[in-house]
Amino acid sequence: MSKSESPIVTFTRKLKEHKAFKECPNKKMIYLIYFKMLISEPFRLIERKKYKQLNNKIDSNRSPVFIIGHWRSGTTHIHNILSMDPGFFYQNKYQNFFSDNFLTTEDVFKPVLSKMMNSASPVKGWKAKAHKTMNMDTPSESDTALISEISEFTYHWGHLFPKAWKQYFDKYLFLENISEQELSDWKQTYAHLLNKVYLKNDKGKLLVKNPGDTARIKHLLKLFPNAKFIFLHRNPYEVFYSNLKLWSNVLDTVALQKISDKKRKDIVLNVYQKLHQKYLEQRQLLNSNQLVEVSYNSIIGSPLETLQHIYEKLELTGYNKALPYFKSYIEATMNWQKSDYIKYPEDIEDINKQWNFAFNLWHYPKLDPDEHAAYIAG
């Protein structure tokens, strides 16, 4: 695969490689991806030519703040809160969805797209929370930008082709079973994306939220030696069931293959374990002012105190200036409904066994499968 390969060629090659089209449960998604690539292609080529000299090497003096932690551990929530700080900038949803051409198209097309989405009756009818997530100026996740531009170098191919999840997660999430050239290409691709975000913002500090970066600290430090990291953890049972729901949503909306419920459960159990294993190995590389660990419960239960702790631990400036914005956002979102999951004894047994380290490390109470079975029967 060539780095210069067009997205259409890459995607077509992937479909053939995974024999996805014949058995695809979601052919509409295939057509939508092709449509998006076709309308984006002229602008992609313009941007590629215009910014051909854009340096893929990042200024080592830059010190972005990375929000890390397993999916559904509160990374999105804290990303949204911190983005209220005027001292931060971030990759927004337009830049995410059109990551290969936003320098060329954003100023013209983002207002048009935002107006179209805000005027569409289905969007207007949604709850305020859902409506906010569609705002093109709100923060977005960096690695999803790479799958939006059909880059080879992202683990999100494992979401489109879940039968091959391990192949893609090992290579581009955990950066294992990967050649030196592929690793170099991944670094250059990620650096190029973040450089473009920097190019759009000449002031402030870059805020990046990306759960996959939890396993890639040592590689990010080679790009940003002074980077800072906010790590989120949450009750393992809540993370487990929330991720089963997340995978169900992925399989229903974007996946181009079907997998069994058992496979879905195995993925959640294995990825959580390995992601945290990588994190625990690599956090030793960080200085005391480069890492802060906070719990989901603390950011929900005492958000302002937790935010102040983050700023102090990472030696960030601007907390007092950002405080009114934090208060406003927290007040607006404090009544959002949170999911409540039924916990099954067989799941509790698996979680207790495979994620035992998390209970010990972050002092979450364990449930007893037999007692919980009696409670459900109760």
Overview of this structure, please?
- The protein is mostly helical and 378 residues long.
- The protein has two domains: 7-90 and 97-105 and 147-335, P-loop containing nucleotide triphosphate hydrolases (Rossmann fold), CATH 3.40.50; 342-378, no CATH class.
- It is 60% helix and 6% strand.
- The protein has 21 helices and five strands.
- It has helices at 7-17, 20-23, 27-50, 75-82, 93-97, 102-119, 121-124, 128-133, 142-148, 157-160, 165-173, 180-200, 217-223, 236-253, 261-282, 296-301, 303-313, 319-333, 345-354, 356-362, 369-377; strands at residues 65-68, 88-89, 205-209, 228-233, 291-295.
- The protein has a five-stranded parallel β-sheet with strand order 2-3-1-4-5.
- Helix 3 (27-50) packs across helix 6 and helix 9 (142-148) crosses helix 12 (180-200).
- The longest helix has 24 residues, at 27-50.
- It starts with 6 loop residues before the first helix and ends with a helix.
- Mean pLDDT is 89; it is low at 121-132.
